Amino acid sequence: MDEEYDCIVLGTGLKECIISGMLSVSGKKVLHMDRNKYYGGESASITPLEDLFTKFGLPSPEETYGRTRDWNVDLIPKFLMANGQLVKLLIHTGVTRYLEFKSVEGSYVYKGNKISKVPADEKEALTSDLMGMFEKRRFKNFLVFAQDFKDDDPGSWKAVPGFDPVNTTMSTVFAHYNLDKNTIDFTGHALALYRDDDYLNKPAGDTLKRIKLYSDSLARYGKSPYLYPLYGLGELPQGFARLSAIYGGTYMLDKPIDEIVLEDGKVTGVRSGGETAKCKQVYCDPSYVPDRVQKVGQVVRAICLLDHPISNTKDALSTQIIIPQKQVNRNSDIYVSLVSYTHQVAAKGWFIAMVSTTVETDNPEAEIAPGLNLLGPVKQKFVTVSPIYKPLDDGTGNQIFISESYDATSHFETTCLDVLSIYRRGTGDDFDFSKVKHNLGDEDM
Amino acid sequence: MAQRGGAQRPSGGGQGKICQFKLVLLGESAVGKSSLVLRFVKGQFHEYQESTIGAAFLTQTVCLDDTTVKFEIWDTAGQERYHSLAPMYYRGAQAAIVVYDITNQDTFGRAKTWVKELQRQASPNIVIALAGNKADLANKRMVEYEEAQTYAEENSLLFMETSAKTAMNVNDIFLAIAKKLPKSDNNARSCWMLQVITFKTGETM
Ligand SMILES: Cc1cc2nc3c(=O)[nH]c(=O)nc-3n(C[C@H](O)[C@H](O)[C@H](O)COP(=O)(O)OP(=O)(O)OC[C@H]3O[C@@H](n4cnc5c(N)ncnc54)[C@H](O)[C@@H]3O)c2cc1C
Ligand SMILES: Nc1nc2c(ncn2[C@@H]2O[C@H](COP(=O)(O)OP(=O)(O)O)[C@@H](O)[C@H]2O)c(=O)[nH]1
Ligand SMILES: [Mg+2]
């Protein structure tokens, strides 16, 4: 390892693996190391099941859990938006060929102590109990406006008098369509996927784009806008690591990282044991540079093993439930996600539910109770409270580019924005997708 | 919506069916894994090939009497060098060729470790072939044919000595694997696969 590289990437979490892939594809000589002997860091899917129990200091699971090798349990729950940034990255880099996805069966929203399906088409919308009949008409008019909206086409703004995407707030747009509180709640949290209500007084353009992302994603595969990879989210970092390797990236796992070496305030290498690899840049997650990040919040997550689906979801084998903040008197939403044996993440007949939210009190576990209450009997629960770190600077000075911890959002959009921003800060360029050759020898994929 | 392999996919209709299988190559660095694939798929050999960069995903078909077997071949992309191969690599593989270099005893030891790993991690029905490569360098031989053959028999592996350089036994080892693979229509995974979404490369957004 006593060689010279353009970039050294530390940690094989999803963000670091995507960055590593992009750097290798762009012709950089990359060394990618992890202190663990497995890929994925925080974004690994834990297997076999004993490893999950051990991680939480529990004795090995009883036999009822089936073959423990059949389990691949994510630590951070997320789904992919079918038309979102991560899918774009996957397709343009060809990493999709290493992965298989399933469409998530349904998306639900919590309203007045029960859950209702987020309608996936007009037929479902007509019978939905989320809105009364006149409200449905108003909502439809709003939706037509959102769907036709284009950032750069003032012609598409006309339906709302005086509208412009930057100066008009979202609450003004809702007011124009005369939507009631529940519809606004549902639109902002279950369609635009905001975690709190700050968006209401911000430029409407951003919210409208998020609603479009939702409906474009829905249009792609039908049942819900979300996708989930077979064998768990841990496959994603591995796929991007493989991309990086194909373009010449060198991989070393199980490497203790002892020091990031700086000279004159700029990084010059990374020391592991007695060896030092030279480099011009370091890219890493916060755990490799505890003194260069600050804590900005916490996320609480409960991993729950169930032997049954969630009630009132038509026995869906995968689903998402959003509990909008206002419904339970909070400032941020609670997310519930469910995947199962059909995704090769659990033994036959088993389900994995995750309940998560941004921490607001001294008793995080109590905060997710409204989500836990929807699950029915839980066989085993693992609760974590994880700090969210952000880098102290943008890295352009010392050339150490640090990713942010994974947030409480239920999808990968912020993950990708962070990756693209880091790439831009590190290379001074936006990632050029055309640099990826598509024919890496595969003729007919 | 295209479906990626993993499951065999017998295509319907009268005579002859097509089955697709995922095949992975394993073994120490520089034993000739990439060279074997290049010989099998493109009929080429590069004497001074730099350690693998580039092609890491190739397909090639083998015709049996009534069946066409399509191999989806995964190469390691060099991730084996520091023992950092990702589990996704051999996940769902229905066939594996474990390669060693007959002129290097260490690579044979390493091959045995890979076989053990496959028996522990991979699906129980996986077809494993052991390839003693660089058979053209017989004058530098360090691993005896009989030793490897005995080991292969004990572990129910297909076994051949091969040469990516002269093409000796290269097609034959793939053909032997194709013959041994189960080609029944009722593969438990294939019904799940029907609902699985994959994307075509280059699909526009
Ligand atoms: C997630 C989601 C996605 C959606 N996607 C789409 C989409 O892609 N495209 C789309 O077009 N819509 C979409 N919708 C909106 C939904 O399709 C409409 O709510 C639905 O079309 C119902 O419209 P409506 O005006 O007929 O319904 P309602 O207003 O509920 O009307 C129901 C019935 O009452 C009658 N009626 C309604 N108002 C009056 C009135 N004032 N006087 C007399 N009779 C009346 C109507 O004729 C109708 O037969 C979506 C909704 C959701 C929640
Ligand atoms: N003489 C001889 N050399 C070979 C043979 N197969 C591969 N090589 C050489 O061995 C080196 C490593 O081969 P490569 O395919 O890159 O090995 P890999 O790291 O296992 O993929 C290259 O220089 C090849 O030319 C063979 O059958 N005979
Ligand atoms: Mg190779």
From TrEMBL, chain A:
One of its GO terms (biological process) is small GTPase-mediated signal transduction. It is found in: Cytoplasm. One of its GO terms (cellular component) is cytoplasm. Its main location: cytoplasm. The keyword Cytoplasm applies. One of its GO terms (molecular function) is GTPase activator activity. Gene3D superfamilies: FAD/NAD(P)-binding domain (3.50.50.60), Guanine Nucleotide Dissociation Inhibitor, domain 1 (1.10.405.10), Guanine Nucleotide Dissociation Inhibitor, domain 2 (3.30.519.10). InterPro entries: FAD/NAD-bd_sf, GDP_dissociation_inhibitor, RabGDI. Keywords: Cytoplasm, GTPase activation. Coiled coil: none annotated. Regulates the GDP/GTP exchange reaction of most RAB proteins by inhibiting the dissociation of GDP from them, and the subsequent binding of GTP. Belongs to the Rab GDI family. This is Rab GDP dissociation inhibitor. The lineage of its organism: Eukaryota, Metazoa, Ecdysozoa, Arthropoda, Crustacea.
From TrEMBL, chain B:
Keywords: Endosome, GTP-binding, Hydrolase, Lipoprotein, Nucleotide-binding, Prenylation, Protein transport, Transport. One of its GO terms (molecular function) is G protein activity. Its main location: other. This is small monomeric GTPase. It is found in: Early endosome. It catalyses: GTP + H2O = GDP + phosphate + H(+). One of its GO terms (biological process) is protein transport. It comes from the Eukaryota. Its EC number is 3.6.5.2. InterPro entries: P-loop_NTPase, Small_GTP-bd, Small_GTPase. One of its GO terms (cellular component) is early endosome. Belongs to the small GTPase superfamily. Rab family. It comes from Petrolisthes manimaculis. It is an enzyme of class 3 (hydrolase).
